Amino acid sequence: MELRLKYAESLFLLVIGAVSVLFLVLSREYSAMARSVPNICAVFALLTIAFRLWQIWSRDSLRGAVLRIHQRSVPFIIMLAVYTAGVFLIGFMLSSLVFVPVCMYWMGQRQIFRIAVITVAYVALIYLVFVVGFRMPLPDSLVGF
Q1: Sign of dihedral through CA atoms 69, 55, 10, 95?
Q2: Cα-based torsion angle of the residue sequence 35, 41, 43, 45 in order, rounded to the nearest 10 degrees
Q3: How many helices (H) and strands (E) does the chain have?
Q4: pTM of this structure
Q5: pLDDT in tens, the chain (145 residues)
């Protein structure tokens, strides 16, 4: 499948912008300390997105360029959407314990021991950095995990 790069990049930037805005809205419930750095990053992302969209559409810098979409990218986007919903429904830890090994297996990693070690190390590192180190709560879930 092929898309004109101008439209593909614009769509990608708009999706990232929408996620940034959604984050800014949802993070209002967190403490000022917990949301300060991520909010600065989200605002910076929005400014960068606005500038890049202006570049694309005012200068027509991507005229004629075509983006070839690999056949494996659509299932990966679907997996990311399911992971995002999983973080909301069952929490970051449980959904990461499912998403990381599924994604690694789908990408071609067949050594189960390596998948397990990387998954546990990733989840433990995220927990240590954010919960222990920064004292920032991981996203809550609907079921309370």
Answers
A1: positive
A2: -150
A3: 5, 2
A4: 0.57
A5: 566 778 888 888 999 999 889 888 888 877 877 778 788 888 999 999 999 888 888 876 666 666 677 777 788 888 989 998 888 888 888 999 999 999 999 888 999 999 999 999 999 999 999 889 888 888 777 776 5
